[in-house]
Amino acid sequence: MGFNAKIILHLMGLLLLCNGGFMLLAAVVSGIYQDGVTLEITLAALVTMMIGVMAMFLTRGHKKEVKRKEGYIIVTFGWIIMAASGVLPYLFSGAIPDITNAFFETMSGYTTTGASIIDDIEVLPEGILLWRSLTHWIGGMGIIVLAIAILPLLGIGGMQLFAAEAPGPNADKLHPRITDTAKRLWLIYFGYTIAETVLLKLAGMSFFDAINHSLATLSTGGFSTKNASLAYWNNQPLIQYIVIFFMFLAGSNFVLSYFVFKGKVQKVLRDEEFKFYAILTAIFVLAVGMVIYFRADVPVSEYHPMVLGDLESSFRHGLFQVVAVITTTGFVSADFTAWTPFITVFFFGLMFVGGSAGSTAGGIKIMRHILIIKNGLLEFKRTLHPNAIIPVRFNQKTVTEHVVYNVIGFFVLYMLLFIIGALVLGFLGLDFETSVGGAASSLGNVGPAFGNLSPLNNFNSLPSLGKWWCGFLMLAGRLELFTVLILLTPYFWKRT
């Protein structure tokens, strides 16, 4: 089977056009704040949009059909093209003059990883800070899903793109037409962003900080406008509680939010994944909070020293960091790697949990863990009753063997890529803790890691090749492995 190259290039042009539009928004904010880089960001936007328009114009006579193979190519290369064009504001403004660092920061943004190479964030111009946050927000729900919402204007069906963008086991849809699904998801996403911005402003943040942190929270990204991240507001607990609430929301299935707005609350309460997500979070918070509370020698934060018996502070920091890591948001209120060796290992394990399917979170996803555990437990029954047909059930529905095999295959592939990722970083000279932490964080789109990549540090210490490698892990993790890795197989490119 050959490829429809024209439709691929046409949609690449569409993505560039969208990306340039968001750059113009950053340029407007730059002009309002008169931060000195308005012209540079505008130029980056115009260059991006010009290339996009040219690509669309040259392929205007394309055949309006996207097949499965084209879908995988469009999604993977779409993200790469977005990241490649997203470096322009950094390069043109001089905020990040090095191409390797600029690409790392941009890929980290679009994949909502939140790992940064910037040593002093607070000196960056407002326009660049907003652009940095916007890359999160665009990548959070997926620029591909945004494109799906407007594909009817081009007369193109978007089901193949949606399958490639979200290849997980959850097939829930809000509406039979995929484009209407995308529109509803984006409306909920946009509404939550506005709501958090308003609440953070009322709680004491400046409007600029509020909008940036809302963009990063709902996308489960983690880029902050402060060097200390959310630890900057450790003396304003209300701000941190608001962020915790929206991180938790962003880590849950957005389809459930739609059901709540439709008054179908019971559907949410009966959802197996959501119950598992909420209970796991509560147990983990209790465990971490108790360790902090009963260990007086644990430094909660350099911005908020530990006070013996400070129950609220102990559990707030425990709650904040557990939710931030499970949802792969990556905000920090403290250096959790200093909270005893047990807590360090505990948080390392949390990096492999991930949020819910249908959320903006990265990681393996809770639904996959549930299916793997259920299938593993059922193997005991199958061993005792080899002739019995004992299917895995999820939300009172039978899960097909195909989905179970897909989930197991994903888990094996994920762990294999993590091991290879850590080995490569180790080969480049990083120590064990930094290597395994960097690989787990990049692949899970978490952000802060361990060793030299802990919350008190950033990823700037990585060698150049290590930054490109982590960028690849981020992309593979964000697109849930199969979409990216299938392009590396010889049979994908064979004519059939």
Shape type:
globular
How would you describe the oligomerization state of the chains in this entry? single chain
Secondary-structure element series: HHHHHHHHHHHHHHHHHEEHHHH
Q: How many helical elements?
A: 21
Low-confidence stretches: 150-157, 304-309
Helix content: 55-70%
Reading side by side through the largest sheet, how are the strands ordered? 1-2
Whole-number mean pLDDT: 87
Task: Return Rg in Å.
Answer: 22 Å
Distance between the termini: 4 Å
Structural class: mainly alpha
> How many extended strands?
2
Classify the beta-strand content into a percent band. under 5%
Mind summarizing the main beta sheet?
2 strands, antiparallel
Keywords: Cell inner membrane, Cell membrane, Ion transport, Membrane, Metal-binding, Potassium, Potassium transport, Transmembrane, Transmembrane helix, Transport
Main location: membrane
InterPro entries: Cat_transpt, TrkH
Transmembrane segments: 7-33, 39-59, 71-92, 137-164, 185-208, 238-261, 276-296, 342-364, 403-428, 466-493
In short, what is this structure?
This protein has 496 residues and is an all-alpha fold. The chain contains 21 helices and two strands. 63% of the residues lie in helices and 1% in strands.
Task: Provide a descriptive summary of the structure in words.
The protein is mainly α. The protein has a domain at 5-183. Helices cover 63% and strands 1% of the residues. It has 21 helices and two strands. It has helices at 5-33, 38-58, 68-86, 88-93, 99-110, 126-141, 143-150, 159-165, 178-203, 207-218, 237-250, 254-261, 265-269, 272-294, 311-326, 340-350, 366-384, 401-427, 432-444, 464-478, 482-485; strands at 392-394, 397-399. Strands 1-2 form a two-stranded antiparallel ribbon. Helix 1 (5-33) packs parallel to helix 3. The protein is globular and about 70 Å long. The N and C termini lie close together (4 Å). The relative contact order is 0.10. Mean pLDDT is 87; it is low at 150-157 and 304-309. Pfam families: TrkH. It is found in: Cell inner membrane. It is a multi-pass membrane protein. K(+) binds at residues 112-113, 221, 328-329, 445-446. Keywords: Cell inner membrane, Cell membrane, Ion transport, Membrane, Metal-binding, Potassium, Potassium transport, Transmembrane, Transmembrane helix, Transport.
